[in-house]
Amino acid sequence: MRAAVRFGLESVRINRGDGSWFRHWPRGALTGRFGSHRGRFDPGQRIANIAFVVTLGTLIVTGVGLTMVKTGPDFVVLVRVHRFATYALTALVAEHVLLALGVLPGYRGAWRSMHLGGRTSTPTARRLWPRSVTNRDTE
Ligand code: HEM
């Protein structure tokens, strides 16, 4: 529960400098030189987190609705929203897999933070989440 609350709070935070991080994102993705940010998640991750929660939540709510409403205009609306949420979720998953594969040089090694225990190397953490690396980690 505490992790879910922290995930939510960290995902909706907006810091000064986030806009600059987005402006420098193409350079960061291609070279690893991302703009700085002050979050536990980078600004792009924060948007992806919210979008995952919204699309999955929409699928569950409209999906449950579809099991109860079988015909009529409500069914048409529910199925449309359900389908649209499916497209959005598919795009999000594709983006997630693209970054995890490390095809973009800036995201090489990022997959280790997502899977197999979530431990990533210090250079990768410094590149993607500079605030997570303390001086002690680099000694
Ligand atoms: C990752 C989650 C989900 C995805 C990607 C997904 C995707 C889809 C898609 C693509 C359709 C076909 C819609 C169309 O005809 O164009 C569909 C139909 C349906 N979904 Fe889901 N769905 C998800 C979750 C759920 C959940 C949680 C429920 C219910 C608890 C649900 C209930 C239904 C029902 C009842 C239909 C059939 C509507 C009909 O009678 O044509 N879905 N879903």
CATH-wise, what's the superfamily? Transmembrane di-heme cytochromes, Chain C
Provide the residue-averaged pLDDT: 92
The major β-sheet equals:
none
Question: How many distinct beta strands?
Answer: 0
Structural class by sheet pairing and helices: mainly alpha
| Total domain units | 1
Percent in strands: under 5%
Termini gap = 34 Å
Outline: elongated
Helix content: 55-70%
- N-to-C SSE string, H for helix and E for strand: HHHHHHHH
CATH A-level architecture: Up-down Bundle
Describe, in plain words, how this protein is organized in 3D.
Helix content is 68%, strand content 0%. By secondary structure, it is an all-alpha fold. It has 8 helices and no strands. Helix 1 (2-12) crosses helix 4 (43-68) and helix 4 runs antiparallel to helix 5 (72-101). The radius of gyration is 18 Å and the shape is elongated. The longest helix is centred in the middle third of the chain and has 30 residues, at 72-101. The chain has a single domain (2-138), classed as Fumarate Reductase Cytochrome B subunit. Bound molecules: protoporphyrin IX containing FE. Protoporphyrin IX containing FE is lined by residues 59-60, 63-64, 66-67, 79, 82-83, 86, 89.
Question: What labels describe this entry?
Answer:
single chain; 139 residues; mainly alpha; Fumarate Reductase Cytochrome B subunit; 68% helix; elongated; binds protoporphyrin IX containing FE
